[in-house]
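This section describes the prediction task in plain terms. A model, or a person checking by hand, is given the sequence of a single protein chain and must write out its three-dimensional structure as a string of tokens. No templates, partner chains or ligands are provided. The sample shown here is typical of the held-out split.
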Amino acid sequence: MSARCVILYIFCALLLLQCNTNDPLSGARPVLEKIAISSSEKIFIVGEKYQFRATGEFSKRQPQDKTQDITFSVTWTSSDTNLVKIEPKTGIAKFASTGKAHIVAVSTGEEGKNIQSQFDFQIFGAVKLHAGIQPADLVITSDSRWALFTESNKVHSVELSDMMLTHPESINKGELAINDFTTGKIVLSKRALSNRESIAYVVGRNNEDISVIATLNLSSLPVFALQHEVVSSRQGNILSIYADASMDSVFVILSSGQAVITFKSTNRLPTLLQIGSSPKFVGGKSGTRKLVAIDTPPKIWIRSFHNNSDRSIETDNDFAQDYSMWPHPISNKVYIIAGVNRLYPLSLDNPPNTLTGIALSEDPEKMAFSEQNNKAFIVTNFRNVMVFDTSSDRYLNTVDKNVPNPALFPEMGEALDVKIDSTGNFAYILAKDSGSAATQRRLYKYNIEGRKLIRAISTQGQPTFLKISPNGRWLFTLDAASKGAIYVFPAF
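The expected answer:
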């Protein structure tokens, strides 16, 4: 080898050595420096399981590789196993009681040094608003300040606040007993030129099975000021009740096909309106001055109070007697579920002579509307969830019902109720567990735009009714059994 080659070889070797010396990451073993704990949830509820994750931050690595998921490489512990138990190798925690606690993730770092991180949280439970009752109906004021519900011959009020979830004993309550009055439905209405409800109408029956309307002034809550009562001499089961602020009136629909209309501001006597011969479903949207009834056998009636006229609409051959009606909260339109795999949109402004259904791939069972984005959320008899566009009245897509983690999400059974939150992005479904004999109920949360299930929690009792506060912070379930109750959950 020539001297020139030897010199060149030595020069290259020295250059390579210098490069390695200047690069502190080459050939070095990564060292764990920090652990961060995270959860996809912000609200933690008693009786549920949650997956926590640990992310490690390492030194002596390129910036793009400095973090790594180490959930199954750390050891998980709980500060109080009476409140929360966590599996030491997986990070799945089960919450057993309300209170404050924290979990810790620990890993052994350089030279046997322990690296750990702590995650603090508040555990919430379902709060029973009232015990030992058989609730009949529940409404929430538009400012989300008060919940009103009925039982036996009483009307109750409960002030809603964050404190009720952490200190339920501090809930501000009130009640009113109405003598010789069995309560049923309750509805809220605004006074003229008012942006919030100021009166409540409570409908029930007295001992002679006569329908009664009690008018309550809400300005004195938590207790009620009873203004006056209006008694109708008409008998029949109460199908529905709603108030129309534009007419300053309340409608009580009876199974006899009669609608008792009480005009509040003029103190006129109740007006009696006959709707068909035997309506099964009656409803409408406040402010439209129109009432919709489905008669038996199937025929649809629209009553307009602008000109005191009736309009009947024939239905197609697929229209069956097993149907339900869902008024849209914004547009002057109602949707009717009937027949086999059929959904019937009905415009009250331009009603057709014959109502024709839209064919769906499965039978729809429950329906809820978003006021923000023209979306409807439909639960089918096969436990699938569909998204429907109410502006064009067409089916958009099916939500993925595959659960992301079988250890956290049980399979949904029969749907009992469905509601969409105030953002229009999330839907909550109250449903039974799968299996014909299942008695457990759960609340399932779906992301509408993402079209996927994101959470499920257990309920108390066996509720059949679900409501969301207008501010989207609280969920209410109503169990109308003989020893039923109303529970409130944080919106999870």
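For orientation: Residues 28-124 form a domain with the Immunoglobulin-like fold (CATH 2.60.40.1080).
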